[in-house]
Each structure stands twice: as structure tokens, then as C-alpha cells.
Amino acid sequence: ITPPSGTYPEAVTMTLSTPASGAAIRFTLDNSEPLESSSLYTAPVTISKTSTVRARAFMTGRTPSAETQATFTISPTLTALAVDSTALTLKKGQSHQLKVTGIYTDGSRKDLTASAAWTSSNTQVATVGAGLVTAMGGGSAAIISTKDARSAITSVVVMLPTLTHIAVSPS
Predict the structure, then answer these.
(1) Which of 114, 116, 119 shows the shortest CA–CA distance to 144?
(2) Which among 84, 86, 102, 153 has most CB atoms closer than 10 A?
(3) Three-state DSSP class for 16?
(4) Contact (Cβ atoms closer than 8 angstroms) between residue 83 and residue 152
(5) Whole-angstrom Cα distance, residue 80 to residue 50?
(6) pLDDT tens column, 61-93
(7) Are residues 44 and 15 in contact, defined by beta-carbon separation less than 8 angstroms?
(8) What is the rounded average pLDDT for all residues in the chain?
(9) Residue 26: how many other CB atoms lie within 10 Å
């Protein structure tokens, strides 16, 4: 069985071979015993989820070969983070919930909002906790979400109220 047992970040292509000319290789992917009725190996097989492969060669009139096996643990790794908003404009006192999604080597995506670390480049302008951004004062800040050495950034601009008129009493 090639490649050998191990942990892989994405699907692997498994090949089976035997030195016995004319032998039929039968295999299973569910850790069950390979029998003459099991799947016949005819071409490389893609292993896309954690599986234990068991195989043996069969030849008419001969005892089946010894069994061989390999366990392939498919454990996708985080390749990037994507935040749902890359730029925000808020008024002082407003809040906005950000969501960060992890993108993995197998193409899968997972919401990492709760498990990511969140920081603000300027807490006088905006604070953040679990992705919830709160506008504190006028200016700009970068909100950074980090997980497994990957980061995504949202720029935040906080607008202060603008004086539009003055009323004088009594007139």
C-alpha cells in the first residue's frame, strides 16, 4: 500500500501492488477483512476521509496472501481566514458583529468566530471581543482576527457626531 499510513492534510491517492503475477488484489476501506468478494483493485483510489485500508491478493488455486493494511488520517489544515466585512464605518457607541471563516486544504470552510483571537490596533477608537466590534471614539482602527498563524483584517472608521445647529433659548 502506497503511500504509507499517516496523517495527511488533504485527500491522498492510494495504490496497491503485489509481486504475484496474475493475482487479484481485493481491498476494503472500512477496516473490515478483505474477502474474495471485496472491491477489486483496478486503479489508484482517492482516500478523502480518514480510512483504514486492508488488502490481500487472491489467486485461483492458491492460499490468499497475508493481509496488509494502512490507516490514512485526513486532517485538513487551515490555509486562510476570510472575514465577512473588510471595512466598517460606525458611529460612536454602535456595535457590529464580525464573522470569520476558516478555509482548509480540502476546500472546506468552518466558522471560527468564537475560537479566533481578536485584537484592535486602537482600543480608543474600537474594541473587539469574540468578533463584536464596538465604536469607542473618532478615528480609525484595524480589527485583526487570528487563528493558527493566519489572520484577516477589517478596517474600522468611527465617525463622531457632527454639530448641525445650535438653538438659543430664550430668543
Answers:
(1) 119
(2) 102
(3) coil
(4) yes
(5) 23
(6) 999 999 999 999 999 899 999 999 999 999 999
(7) yes
(8) 95
(9) 21
pTM tops 0.85, yes or no = no
171 pLDDT higher than 70: no
Cα–Cα distance for residue pair 96/53, rounded to 1 Å: 48
Sign of CA dihedral 36, 39, 43, 48: negative
SS3 assignment, position 46: strand
163 has pLDDT over 80: no
Summarize the confidence of residues 42-59 as an average pLDDT.
96
Sole residue written with cell 489572520: 151
Give 140's Cβ-side CA count (13 Å radius): 7
What cell numbers appear for 82 in the block?
476570510
